[in-house]
Amino acid sequence: MKEWEVSKVNALYKEIDDLKSKNAALEAVGSLSALNEKLDSIEKKVDEICKCCDCTPPVKKKTK
After folding, report:
1. Tens of pLDDT along 21-39?
2. Are 50 and 56 in contact (CB under 8 A)?
């Protein structure tokens, strides 16, 4: 292999590593987003249950 080919291959491997790292970070954000959606759904259900039994929910306001 010529020197420029080796350099190009190494650059491509570095780019792949960077993309894998960015992909992992995006997947983590996606997981947190899905988790937040599920948490919102659970909070709504708790609020509905509290309305039925005429009590107050343990958390009155969601903090962000």
Report:
1. 999 998 888 888 888 889 9
2. yes
* Cα–Cα–Cα angle for 30, 40, 38, rounded to 5 degrees: 50
Q: Pick from 54, 30, 34: which is nearest to 42 by CA?
A: 34
Tell me how many domains the chain contains: 1
Range of the domain at 7: 1-64
Comparing C-alpha atoms, which of 15, 14, 64, 16 is closest to residue 39? 64
Q: pTM above 0.70?
A: no
Give the confidence band of 46 by pLDDT, cuts at 50, 70, 90.
confident
